[in-house]
Amino acid sequence: MILVTGASGTLGRVLVPTLTRRGTDVRALSRTPRSGNGPGGTGSFEWVVGDLAAGTGLDEAVDGIDVIVHAASNTRGQGRGDADAVWRLLEAAKRGGRRPHVVYISIVGVDRIPFGYYRIKREAEQTIEASGLPHTIQRTTQWFQLLDKFLTLAAKSPVVPVPAAPFQPLDAAEAATRLADLAGAEPLGHAEDMGGPELLDSSEFAQAYLRATGKRRVLVPFRLPGKAGRAFRAGAHTSPENQQGKTTWAEYLAAEYGAEHGA
């Protein structure tokens, strides 16, 4: 059985049905009681109540688990508490001599960009590496869904600021497929980075979004400050040699907004 944290998040919502369609039994961690039908497929599905921040319910959550896919993150709080949360999860996982395979989703560039959220993701990686548990850490480039959310919020203003940097986004559904593959395989330590199929300037992604949504806005590129800004402009968050993603930004926009043209 596989335990999935962050099952109701951007990645978890597509990861759980990907697993159950493969016949995998899934337990999903939630801070509050949930009910309802499973996501379909031949694998069983159940919710379990547990709080990574408080450390409650984790022993029950990991009981009988073979693999933990840790996809939970305090994104609204820029990762605040994430490193402590993963430590609590791992400690619960190890009690009683258990040795589940831990699969962790991370971000390309967390070891190269001195940006707050990235530093926390790297700290979580290091906690997993030092745990003594078999593990696989998968770094991916940013996801279409997050880029879409950012642009949707930014486009509420007639002037849309966009960071002057290249991006290589990936469909979260393809990241979920990769995690499902890793969950069913032997631990790798660090898996090969995974990136989207195209590398474009952020303004190009933004222009395609505006065309797809029919919004007329003024794009204003800006330079991110400091060392982190220089690293982003240099593309430290991209992986041009790893373009495993198949879905393009134009195809994603067409599916979401009925767009005929894209980046």
Describe this structure in words.
With 263 residues, this protein is of the alpha/beta class. The chain has a domain at 2-142 and 171-190: Rossmann fold, CATH 3.40.50. It has nine helices and eleven strands. It has a seven-stranded parallel β-sheet, sandwiched between helices. A two-stranded parallel ribbon has the order 7-11. Strands 8-10 form a two-stranded antiparallel sheet. Helix 1 (12-21) packs across helix 6 (172-183) and helix 7 packs parallel to helix 9 (249-257). The longest helix is centred in the middle third of the chain and has 14 residues, at 116-129. The N and C termini lie far apart (41 Å). The model has no long low-confidence stretch (mean pLDDT 94).
Quick description:
The chain has 263 residues and is an alpha/beta fold. It is built from nine helices and eleven strands. It has a domain at 2-142 and 171-190: 3-Layer(aba) Sandwich (Rossmann fold).
List keywords for this structure.
single chain, 263 residues, Rossmann fold, seven-stranded parallel β-sheet, two-stranded parallel sheet, 9 helices, globular
Instruction: From the alpha carbons, calculate the radius of gyration and give it in angstroms.
Output: 19 Å
Question: Globular, elongated, flat, extended or rod-shaped: what is the shape?
Answer: globular
Instruction: Report the sheet with the most strands, covering strand number, pairing sense and barrel closure.
Output: 7 strands, parallel
Tell me roughly what share of residues is in helical segments: 25-40%
Number of helices: 9
CATH homologous superfamily placement of the domain at 2-142 and 171-190: NAD(P)-binding Rossmann-like Domain
In the CATH scheme, the class of the domain at 2-142 and 171-190 would be Alpha Beta
Determine the CATH topology of the domain at 2-142 and 171-190: Rossmann fold
CATH-derived architecture of the domain at 2-142 and 171-190: 3-Layer(aba) Sandwich
The class by helix and strand makeup works out as alpha/beta
Q: Secondary-structure element order, as H and E?
A: EHEEHEHEHEHEEHEEHEHH
Averaged pLDDT, please?
Answer: 94
Strand arrangement in the largest pleated sheet: 3-2-1-4-5-6-9
Distance between the termini: 41 Å
Strand coverage percent = 15-25%
Uncertain residue segments: none
Structure summary, number of beta strands: 11
